[in-house]
Design brief:
The structure holds 2 protein chains of 2 kinds. By secondary structure, chain A is α/β, with parallel strands linked by helices. Chain A has helices at about 1-5, 15-25, 60-70, 85-90, 95-100, 110-120, 130-135, 145-150, 180-190, 195-200, 220-225, 235-240; strands at about 30-35, 40-45, 50-55, 75, 130, 165, 205-210, 215, 230-235, 245. In chain B, helix 1 (about 5-20) packs across helix 2, helix 2 (about 25-45) crosses helix 5 (about 80-100) and helix 5 (about 80-100) packs across helix 9 (about 165-175).
């Protein structure tokens, strides 16, 4: 009898049990599809925040890749389950709306998370170089690591790694489909990528405004409001400072 | 069976407890996956009712999650997870057994008007079809277990199905080791008597 009794313990929890438990405590993972300038993208989230944004062919592929990456399953959210703040952020892609969301960056290191949080500060319609992020997070020499962290961004589009470009003005690579896609999403946000590259090609890094004696990153909103005849290009921080200009407090082109 | 590899079991437990100490939300899913089969089997053997067993197992994990969120990391790290889950689940079964009538589905799929009855009504031979012999035997055993008084049932399940040491069972049940031992032995004797009375004497008269 004791042998038979032991076998009563050979039992598996019913199918779907894990997901029902996770759902009951609010830890289950849901996803929804959204339209973007890059086509259809899928966004997953849980109680900790947005966990994943992927540009893949269809839902089935998203599920498969998500599970392979995170080791947990994900279910399609009912329309009423999609957070309004997420819908809004996907629609406007404004930095303020994206900053209002929580992000689940469990899979990232502290350094990577710091890079991503900094990228979240770049307004729509503007770009910053990799070394700006490195300096702003207090790791001025870690420019390459910044690039790697942005390449591994688990939540692209929402955390706008596409707004981070190379120091030489080249647009740089992009995880969601290469430089062409990066150009496309930046142009959808109002960045004149061609003009930016031409400007950089001439060795110009900053834009000074003669009336205020302030210099900015070329896409800074404050600098863009200046009248054309007041704009002065600068090759370097030293040149701008020598001309009596101080760095803009909004876009912080220099420490 | 767990009892056969206690060392691996303890390592798993320490690893999961350390992960829970670090971050409950991240470690909770692996925690559930590691213990859900054990906990469901345990709940099923305590309730003899699959629907109720699932409810108990799920409620246990939900209660565990809420507690983990409140505990400081040091306490989470030092938890004996398996014994802790056994304790929470047993308390829930005790509460169910005590609670007033409510409609539940018993083993044979019929609605019964009373949870109390659900523990007692699972007669052998009322199942929908004739199953393979060993299935029937296990079904009869589980039913007989379900007819045991909960104080014996808990002790027998923890000792002979879950394969736990008396010291651990004593902590789970909140009883001295002597009481646990005597309840295990008394429970087994009652179980044998029950099975013999119901005509399974042949199989269980020699008794190992």
């Amino acid at each position: 009898m004791l042998k038979d009794i032991q076998r009563l313990g050979e039992m598996h929890a019913p199918a779907g049990f894990t997901n029902r438990v996770l759902r009951a405590v609010g830890l289950d993972e849901r996803f929804a599809g959204f339209d973007s300038p890059l086509g259809r993208v899928y966004v997953a989230w849980n109680a900790k925040g947005i966990s994943s944004v992927m540009r893949v062919a269809d839902e089935a592929t998203f599920r498969k890749e998500f599970e392979a990456l995170h080791g947990r399953s994900v279910r399609r959210a009912a329309p009423r389950e999609i957070p309004g703040a997420l819908r809004r952020a996907m629609e406007t892609r404004s930095a303020a709306d994206a900053r209002r969301l929580k992000y689940d960056l469990r899979s990232c290191t502290q350094f990577e998370a710091a890079v991503l949080r900094k990228a979240l500060e770049i307004p729509r319609g503007q770009v910053r170089p990799y070394n700006w992020i490195a300096r702003e997070i207090g790791r001025p020499k870690a420019v390459r690591a910044v690039g790697t962290a942005l390449a591994n961004n688990p939540v692209p589009i929402l955390i706008p790694c596409h707004r981070v470009v190379r120091g030489d003005g080249k647009i740089g690579n992009y995880g969601l489909g290469g430089p062409q896609k990066k150009t496309r999403i930046l142009e959808a946000e109002g960045v004149d990528v061609g003009a930016l590259e031409r400007y950089a090609h001439q060795g110009m890094r900053f834009k000074g405004v003669a009336s205020t004696k302030i210099f900015c990153w070329p896409t800074c909103a404050a600098g863009r409001r200046a009248r054309a005849e007041n704009v002065r290009p600068f090759h370097s921080e030293a040149e701008a400072r020598a001309a009596g200009y101080r760095p803009c407090k909004q876009c912080r082109p220099a420490a | 069976m767990n009892a056969l590899r206690p060392a691996a079991d303890d390592r798993t437990q320490r690893k999961i407890a350390a992960a829970l100490a670090q971050d409950v939300d991240t470690a909770f899913e692996p925690f559930v996956r590691a213990y859900q089969d054990r906990l469901f089997a345990y709940a099923l053997n305590l309730t003899a009712n699959p629907a109720l067993a699932e409810e108990v197992a799920q409620d246990t994990f939900v209660a565990a999650y809420r507690a983990l969120r409140k505990y400081p990391p040091s306490r989470r790290r030092s938890l004996a997870l398996r014994a802790w889950l056994y304790t929470i689940a047993l308390n829930r079964v005790r509460n169910l057994a005590r609670s007033p009538a409510s409609k539940v589905v018993s083993l044979d799929g019929r609605a019964t008007p009373d949870r109390q009855l659900a523990f007692q009504l699972v007669e052998p031979g009322t199942g929908p079809a004739i199953q393979a012999e060993h299935h029937e035997t296990l079904g009869e055993l589980r039913a007989a277990l379900g007819r045991l008084d909960l104080r014996y049932r808990g002790a027998v399940v923890l000792r002979h199905i879950e394969g736990r040491e008396y010291a651990e069972i004593s902590r789970v049940l909140g009883q001295p080791v002597g009481t646990v031992k005597s309840n295990v032995h008394r429970g087994l004797a009652l179980l044998r008597a029950d099975l013999q009375r119901r005509g399974h004497a042949q199989r269980y008269s020699a008794l190992g």
